[in-house]
Amino acid sequence: MDFLLIGLVLLLTAAGQVLQKLGADHAARPDGNSGYIRRALSRKEIHRAIICLAIATALWLVVLYRMDVSKAFPILSLNFVVVLVASRWILSETITPERWIGATLITIGVLLVAAT
Q1: Distance (Å, rounded) from C-alpha 116 to C-alpha 55?
Q2: I need a surface site. Which of 1, 42, 73, 87 has the fewest CB within 10 A?
Q3: Alpha carbon separation from 29 to 24, 61, 87, 110 (Å, rounded)
Q4: Is 35 helix (H, G, I), strand (E, B) or coil?
Q5: What's the confidence (pLDDT) of residue 54?
Q6: DSSP conformation letters of 58-116
Q7: Spatial contact of 47 and 22, defined as CB atoms under 8 Å apart
Q8: pLDDT tens across 26-70, in order?
Q9: What is the dihedral of CA 74, 78, 81, 84, to 10 degrees?
Q10: What is the rounded distance in angstroms from the CA atom of residue 13 to the CA atom of residue 82?
Q11: Of 74, 80, 86, 69, whose CA–CA distance to 103 is shortest?
């Protein structure tokens, strides 16, 4: 159950990050940054990101109640990997081999922590 909760936190925080990127990109204008923050905050993607991150925070509090933070927090590092994959597939970003290697090292580290 604890790992399911952490999985939900990971998915929601990654979704929040991707939605923030989409909202930021859509708020940008080629003619400059006049009113950029206001435009960004009015985007539906940003509103959805806030909802995802708020739910993730509430679930994270449950995780912290149920698990040692010394185990839960390192597992949350998988967020870097989930966002990297989402960036590639959803945002069509180019991911360098070095980033994939870094993601692999993070995953190995998380597996070691989770096994203890």
Answers
A1: 28
A2: 1
A3: 10, 38, 22, 40
A4: coil
A5: 98
A6: HHHHHHHHHS-HHHHHHHTTHHHHHHHHHHHHTS-----HHHHHHHHHHHHHHHHHHT-
A7: no
A8: 887 656 666 777 888 889 999 999 999 999 999 999 999 999 998
A9: -100
A10: 9
A11: 80
Rounded to two decimals, the pTM is: 0.86
pLDDT tens-digit map of 57-111: 999 999 999 999 988 999 999 999 999 999 999 999 999 999 999 999 999 999 9
Residue type, 45: E
User: Hunting for tokens 């580290």 — which residue is that?
Assistant: 109
Q: Which two tokens stand for residue 1?
A: 């159950």
Distance separating alpha carbons of residues 52 and 9, to the nearest angstrom: 9
